[in-house]
Description:
The protein is built from 6 helices and 10 strands; from the N terminus they run H-E-E-H-E-E-H-E-E-E-E-H-H-H-E-E. The protein is an alpha/beta fold. It starts with 21 loop residues before the first helix and ends in a 6-residue tail after the last strand.
Amino acid sequence: MSPNIPRRGAAVRPPLREHSSPVDRARAPAGRWRRSLLLAVVAATALAGAGVSAATDRSGAAALAVPPTVSPSAVPTPVPDPFVASPAVSPAGPAVSPASPAVSPASPGVGPGPSPPTSPAGDGPEATPLVAGVADPAPVLRLPGPVPATGRGVFGYAEQPAPVLGSSGVLRRFRVAVEVGAGEEVPAFAAAVQAALAGPGSWVDGGGLRLQRVGPAVRADFTVYLATAGTAARMCAAGGVDIRVGGRPYTSCRTSGKVVLNLDRWRTSVPHFVAAGVPLDTYRRYVVNHEVGHQLGHRHEGCPGAGRPAPVMQQQTLFLGGCRPNPWPYLNGRRYTGPRA
């Protein structure tokens, strides 16, 4: 049997080539390169698909987390945190608000204090400041307007009693009355008399006297009247005292159980007090204590020396004699007097 004839039933194999041509040798590497490239493309496609799927999942989750769109007009204006340093200054001005605690004058220990208020523009340095250093209003030296010259001699009385003035000594009770038509209120006059007799510096400071205002139904040792000039002249003349100066009723007086204050003096003071800038309230305290001093038994006194306070029993309504106005019988806790006039 010939070796080249295959046996029945045996697989037929292609004949082996002992030698390959140059073309065949060049095609073999190219085929392997194409297969490798194909595998790389397939792998890259698979990886890209996985990345796209993951990105799609993330995009979907992010879409679920995004809040609904808000119009710009509904967005509130951000409020800067006052305790965080502000960014750079904008062209419109400093980024720090004046109310920020970092620069507020009210914050202790931070920055300088508030600047004093500036005065309004004026012609010179005398312009009045807005707040600091505002001068006190000028004292009232006299009241304007006409003063009733006379009345009917009918009086209204302070109804309510007042606290006792003084801590020890004999108690003297008094009433307060204002002539009807005088244009003065009884409560206001009663309060002014109470203040004058309360001190400090009044007659009760000596420790031997107490004073108390009582109502009209209570027995009193004396009454303090505020009367028009015409009525005061008649009341004082009835007690033997002439209050006229230059032919017209001018001063006040004391008669038995009556202290009569002239309405003219109560409202307009006296020229030398006004010229010296002495407040009207000071004159009123003086005239109350002077005339009550007469009721308590004290006589007129003179000026003890130029430049010194005038004694309360000096006739300060008429002259000062070189002394300074003084409404009190006690100064620095001691009785202040002058030579007997």
